[in-house]
Amino acid sequence: MVKNNQSHEEIKNILASLKNLEARVVKLESQLKFSPSVEAETDVRPLIPANLNEVTANLEMRIGQFWFAKAGIVILALGIVFLLTFPYKTLPAILPSLVGYLLVIFILTLSFLWRNSITYLSSYLLGGGLVLLYFSTLRLHYFSLDSVIEKKSILIGLLLVTVFLTYFAAVRRKSAYFAALSTTLGGITAIISDQTYIIFLLLLLVSSLVTYLKLKYQWNGLMIYGLILTYFLHFLWFINNPFMGHPPKLIIPPQANLYFILLYMVIFMLANLLRKKETSENTFLIFNTFINSFIGYGLFLMISLARFQVDLFVLHFTASILFLLFSISFWIHEKSKYSTFFYALLGYTALSVAILAQFKVPQSLIWLCWQSLLVISTALWFRSKIIVLANFIIFLIIFLGYLLLAKNIGLESLSFGFVALVSARVMNWQKHRLELKTEFMRNSYLTTAFVMIPYAFYHIVPVGYISLSWVGVALFYYLLSIILQNTKYRWMALLTLLLTILYIVIIGIARLDPVYRIVSFIVLGTVLMITSIAYTKMKMGKDKKAEEKQ
Q1: H helices of 87-175, where?
Q2: pTM attached to this predicted model
Q3: Which of 38, 77, 98, 404 has its Cα between 20 and 30 A from that of 507?
């Protein structure tokens, strides 16, 4: 008893000590403003599941419940399609379609009954039933010796009913899969019609519905699929619609087909332009723009080059205006970086194609030179450094191409110098838009002008007036330096005068007529003296200001 009492006393003392220690810890935490200690929750996930049997059972259930349902519906639908398309020679032509419609009614009834209890299977059955409805209708004209419906226009109308039912199911159930199915059936219907303008109109309808669903539900995958399908089916039509048994070849199409391609591009462009404001330009949107730009215009370019070479200028000039309006719309609407770039690039490309189609080399190079001014002006507005840099490289290629290909250098060659001067000035004026930290490109444009303008005058004016024309160019540069308060033009003037001196001393003495030689020396000497006096006064003015500051 004594020992038990002692052990009880010891336990009480230990408990009292623990309570006292806990009270001290709580007091210490409150003074240090610590939150009460709680048991740390750990989320330790073992590398190997604790219950492997449970994981295996879940996987088995998922395969058996969902995957087998999908596979079963697809296989069953394919089997019934094969059944419907089999050419029964001894049976009435309408009988396979009637059997198909009865099966559709049965499948859709099951889908309706299971809409709440077995939702996933109800959705699969609905999709399979709509596909069977489409092929049962298609069987009324195809796959038999005697057609139930002879007029294809009636068949197309009935098929479109199925397409719209599928589209209605997509909207009702908010299902991107039904939307893709509706898009596919609409495209197939267009090809089955085998009529040019019906194909175009149905593709317009498909692209419009895809765009609407993209804007309403943000189904980016459907948008990409609709883009590819629309342009592919238009291309399929252009190669004589081999899907309908025609031999593959490039047909002679109506020119209106190219304007339908532009309409597709407009519709798909609106899907990005009219999207919700809070949606940024993510990867899907950029990819959509890329496909619409280059696949759409690539198809337009291919067909126009293959069949409409006479009208290339009008076609591509129209396309260039449309694409530049796209780029301007995206820039004004949201200051878009990628869409603006892609559509602007297409606009410049289409304009280049139009110029090359309308004018022969080297005249086309002069027009491309002037186009460079348009490109750099819009690129600065769009704040696109990539376009500015690419435009400069292309401008140099055009410039060198002109020097190599032009047999007779005429007055139009001054265009390169003038465009280079204006481009450099525009870049200097709008340099804040690109935050350019280097003068490289502006100096490069000025260097091009410095080379091209004397070179042009060397070929344009008579030999006796070459030095005088160069002196006039130097005076023009000095005038620009005074007006614009820019020392770069003074350096261009100075270097042009040095070039004139070299020409007079090396070539002028030997080749110039005595009269022109005398005039050239007197004029050049006078200008050099006046220039020297001007630099002397400039130096004296700077020295005087420096003394006044001291």
Answers
A1: 95-113, 119-138, 152-173
A2: 0.74
A3: 404
